[in-house]
Design brief:
Elements (H helix, E strand, L loop, with lengths): L4 H17 L26 H12 L1 E2 L14 H13 L13 H12 L3 E2 L4 H27 L2 H14 L18 H10 L6 H9 L9 H24 L13 H12 L33 H53 L3
Helix pairs in contact: 3-5, 7-8, 9-10
Length: about 350
């Protein structure tokens, strides 16, 4: 690591300031050729080799601000790929989790990672923390992949259960679907921020679950979006009633924290501590005042109505079958009694006709 990393992050902005403060080109001499008097000569672009070298240098810099081409964990795939290759290059023992890896190899992997990227010494602890977290995640994924390749009966059974869970009907809401593809939800949020768009939870959920025609690919996403709009209107109405100016408020009047809090209140937090529709953006959801025990199950009223109707239909069918069974049972009893009476009469007639 070099102390010039901070200068690299500031070089982009300083170069622009230098361009603004540069003196204007002098006017052409009177004896110059006529075509030279048409305007000042064009500014020369920096050499291509220097530009490429600058881009390569920026691509090696780590900084959480990610300015001027700097990279950071969870936002840039090449860093994750680099960590995986570092682990694979020196994997010397049967370590199935990060806690089982000896400290010597953890430090060796981190030292190798230092040769691939550079950062300011002031954020050394932050880089080390994020490296350990990412390395633990990649190691867990590598072990899981190695197990799945074995295709043992236990692995096949576990895979079948996981697939059945993914393909579950979710109480009439259908199989879960989204439109994020291979992108993480964190990258989707980064794209919204880069375009100066709303980057709240509801915006990320709509971006990953809504089609271009504004329809939803997932039923639960549609339900949450509708209930979100209703709750936002109620919240804005309360703000307007308490506002003495009588000004009409829109959703733009809400802060990012208020939008996220409303979303978590509607979507709820599962027992595993996850919020529907925001994927990897789960870090701040638990601090918004909703606990897993008090999470709200969001279901469509139409879905609940259909379920009640189905239960009533099943109950009615069961009652009809019960009545039919009782009628059949009574008929059988009458038939048995009739046959018993005939047998008694025939036996008595036979005994009477027999001579002493």
């Amino acid at each position: 690591m070099r102390s010039s990393v901070g200068l690299l992050l500031e070089r982009g902005s300083s170069s622009q300031i230098g361009a603004l403060n540069a003196p204007a080109p002098s006017a052409p001499h009177a004896t110059q050729a006529p075509h030279a008097a048409q305007g000042p000569p064009a500014a020369q672009a920096p050499p291509a080799g220097e530009e490429i070298a600058l881009q390569q240098c920026y691509s090696r810099v780590l900084h959480p601000s990610r300015q001027n081409g700097a990279k950071w964990f969870d936002h840039d795939t090449p860093i994750s790929t680099c960590v995986r290759k570092v682990i694979e290059g020196s994997f010397k023992g049967p370590w199935y989790s990060w806690s089982k890896v000896p400290l010597f190899y953890k430090e060796a992997w981190y030292s190798t990672f230092k040769t691939r990227y550079e950062w300011d010494p002031a954020i050394e602890h932050l880089v080390k923390t994020n490296f350990d977290k990412l390395a633990a995640s990649r190691l867990r994924g590598m072990v899981s992949l190695a197990k799945s390749r074995g295709r043992t009966p236990e692995a096949i059974q576990k895979s079948g259960k996981a697939r059945a869970s993914r393909m579950s009907d979710r109480y009439g809401l259908g199989v879960y679907r989204h439109r994020a593809g291979s992108r993480s939800y964190l990258k989707v949020q980064d794209g919204l921020v880069a375009n100066n768009e709303d980057a709240s939870y509801i915006a990320v959920m709509k971006k990953t679950h809504q089609k271009p025609d504004s329809t939803y690919v997932d039923e639960r996403a549609r339900i949450i979006a509708e209930k979100y709009e209703e709750l936002v209107q109620e919240y804005l109405s309360q703000l307007e009633s308490s506002n003495s100016n009588g000004e009409l408020l829109t959703i733009d009047a809400l802060t990012l924290e208020e939008k996220n809090e409303i979303y978590v209140k509607i979507a709820g937090i599962s027992k595993q501590g996850r919020v529907f529709g925001i994927g990897s953006i789960q870090s701040g959801a638990m601090s918004l005042g909703t606990s897993p025990d008090s999470s709200q199950a969001v279901e469509d009223a139409g879905t609940l109505t259909r379920r009640v109707e189905e239960l009533e239909s099943e109950l009615k069918t069961s009652l009809d079958e019960n009545v039919l069974f009782r009628k059949r049972f009574e008929t059988m009893e009458q038939l048995v009694q009739s046959l018993s009476g005939q047998n008694i009469n025939s036996s008595s007639g036979t005994s009477a006709s027999t001579p002493p």
